[in-house]
Amino acid sequence: MTTALIYLVVMLLVAAVVFLLAAVVFGRGEELAPLPPGSSPTRLPAGEVTGEDVRNVRYQLVLRGYKMSEVDWVMERLGAQIDELRARVTELEAQRTR
Description:
Elements: H1 2-26, H2 51-55, H3 68-97
């Protein structure tokens, strides 16, 4: 009977340690307050967004999240396309005013 009680106490201690470790690593389940409407956790200019603005966006590093190399690749591609589209719009507007 004493052995079973010792096993039970050891199992409870191990479970408590695992729970505390998981709570420290993954948080305690709190939710962040919602952001005000129209705001963003990343920084972008209030006016027009350029390709360079998109390429310079950086995200906070977290334990669980997006793979940064993939995010960087997408942002680079989006930045290049924004630059191309803006150049094309400028070209078409110049042709229209002639």
